[in-house]
Amino acid sequence: MQFVEEIVVDEFLPTVRSMLAAELRERGLTQSEVADVLGISQSAVSKYAHGDVTVNDRIAGDERIETLVAELADGLAAGDVTPVRALIEIEILIRELETGGDLLAQLHEEGVPELADHGSSFRVHDPESDLRTSERVLSSLRRGLRILENASGFTALIPAVGSNLVACTPDAEDVDDVAGVPGRIFDVKGKATVPADPEFGVSEHVATILLAARRHDADVSAAVNIAYSPTLLDRLTEMGHTTAEFDESDDVVSSVGAAVDEVPEATVLYQTGGMGIEPLIYVLGTDAESVADDVRTLL
Domain HTH cro/C1-type: where (predicted)? Predict the structure, then answer.
């Protein structure tokens, strides 16, 4: 198994650094100055200068890379371009070369020919592909879950029905577009326990709250439910959140929509319970990690 990022690290970066080091030396910079500009050691510059680093000829021969390296070398040598600016320019080019059919994508597909089995409609290198979008959501969700698992005292915020941290794709329309924890997060002997890896389509309740808020133009993509208390609401307000109450005993989707319409800036929704309904707080945010961080700050 090889990721396109490995090609960037193992082949693209050594090649571009070697090219930049050579260009900067040609422009009169000393080995020490080249090391400072590129943020590498002098011994590394020496290896580049003596050809001790393997260069990918296809990468080195790409006209776009040659042009960018020459332009950056001119700017870095003259002091018109900062190393940070050079980094940004290279990062932009990397993203372009990773798109389907371009240089890094070609190198990846040659290294992993099985990718062709997914058919022409599958573009693993397209940053907007469904697969990459879903994986980004799941990756963020996993990081958020680790934050909650390691947060001392989080179990005190887990309601009787359990908590769930969820996150959705940018164009989410239904619960199948929302990832969450199968079976929810529970307090098991004083430890927050995530029973399984996050999946799409496994959270009915918290996903419904998130989707309902989004349908009324709330700029949120993740949510978590925690136990209700006025003290927690006050803490969330102090942290900069805006709260809005809704009635879960009624139609949840309509009630959440009405609450968001009334308080468009709301990032915390809550209900105070009723017959057979546990009072809950829902913390919403732009991604799973930021939501988990907010919850950790409550502790």
Answer: 20-48
pLDDT attached to residue 113: 73
User: What single string gives the DSSP state of each residue in 215-249?
Assistant: HTT----EEEEEE--HHHHHHHHHTT--EEE--TT
Q: Which residues of 62-101 are buried (b: 16+ CB within 10 A; e: fewer)?
A: beebeebbeebbeebbeeebeeeebeebbeebbeebbbee
Distances from the Cα of 233 to the Cαs of 9, 94, 101, 264, 281, in angstroms? 46, 44, 51, 17, 8
238 within 8 A of 244, measured Cβ to Cβ: no
Domain-wise residue ranges, the chain: 4-118, 130-298
Handedness of CA 111, 116, 118, 120 (dihedral sign): positive
Do 179 and 199 form a contact (C-beta atoms < 8 A)? Answer: yes
- On whether the pTM is more than 0.70, the answer is no
Architecture of the domain delimited by 130-298: 3-Layer(aba) Sandwich (3.40)
Give the residue among 289, 281, 280, 293 at the shortest CA–CA distance from 151: 293
Q: What is the pLDDT of residues 201-251, one digit of tens each?
A: 999 999 999 999 999 999 999 999 999 999 999 999 999 999 999 998 879
Contacts of 76 (CB under 8 A, 6+ apart): 20, 24, 37, 83, 86
Please state the φ and ψ torsions of residue 243, each to the nearest 5 degrees. Answer: -105, 155
Query: Nearest CA to 38 among 52, 51, 25, 50?
Result: 25
Q: Are 280 and 270 in contact (CB under 8 A)?
A: yes
- In which element (H, E) is residue 69 found? helix 63-78
Short-list 150, 149, 245, 169, CA closest to 214: 169
